[in-house]
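During the first year of the project, the team set up a workflow for recording each protein of interest as an amino acid sequence followed immediately by a discrete structure-token representation. This format lets reviewers and collaborators read both layers of information side by side without switching files. As required by the reporting guidelines, we include two representative entries from the current panel. The first entry is reproduced here exactly as it appears in our internal archive.
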Amino acid sequence: MEHAVRFDRGFLASLGLSLAILAAGSYWVFGYAPNHRQPQLRESAAFGVQPSDLSRISRISDVIVEGVVKEVYPAEWTTRNKSAPVNVQEMLTNDDVQLRTPVLLEVWKVFKGRGVPGTVMFTLPGGNDGEVRVSSPFGLTLEPGQRVLVFLSQAPKNAGPWAQISPLYPQLFFVIEGKDLHGPDRTVPRKSVMTQLGFGG
């Protein structure tokens, strides 16, 4: 039986643009009453997370890579006992209580970053532990086999327990399909993004 609430949450002020993305983006936690009626939703404002100008995201990202998703691991709670909090509302007030989904990426091309290995692990905010489902503010999920362009940042040393799963977190990502990049808010031509970022065609 899933529990649910919809909410906005922010992370650490030092996470730069990611704070704005995650604080402004909406999280959904869907819950069902014992009589299986439709879930009650709490509405909150949601703002776009895909700016038209990607130069700032490119500048503050530590790693920008293109690759293929090798594995999407089960979502993990960042609580001490690795279980969902008794009161899911705690996610609204405690940055140490998060549900994160680890993603393993096989790197095909490095646009930014030094010493980037052949595979990198990062975590998406949100996930599904079987009891609680929290949607990512990016509005997209990832699946093995998908080709993606990912803008990643390194968590600061004082980051919360979520960074122990992986210190890399996405500022933004696109799912690549042919000559198109599917982002959180809209689809854009790959060529225009590459040109805008100075990566060539």
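The second entry, processed by the same pipeline in the following quarter, appears below.
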Amino acid sequence: MADTNNNENIRALLLQLAQSQIETNRQIQLTQQEIRETQQEIRETNATVRELTSDVNRVLARSAILDDVLLELRENSERHQRNFTEHQRTTNAALLSLEAINLRLIEIIGRG
């Protein structure tokens, strides 16, 4: 009878061990599936990060070009403003000279 009890105890322990092993295997499979899903998400995230990095690099390159263009436009605008001011000054001086010549001519004609 003791052998029967021992056998039943051993069977019960083996059954518990087998069930525990089955549960452990199930958890391992679930964990492996989660790992695969996480790895896929990481690959997708990496692809997104690469795309965003590429976009940022393009935007920064365009921004640098636009900064150069704006600087050149500003310099051109300042140069044109200086040229305009100089032309205005010389035109005003020429007009004053013409006015003086006209006044002198009127004075000469008036005497004659």
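For the second entry, the following points were noted during internal review. The mean pLDDT is 95. Residues 64 and 70 are 10 Å apart (CA to CA). Both points are flagged for discussion at the upcoming steering committee meeting.
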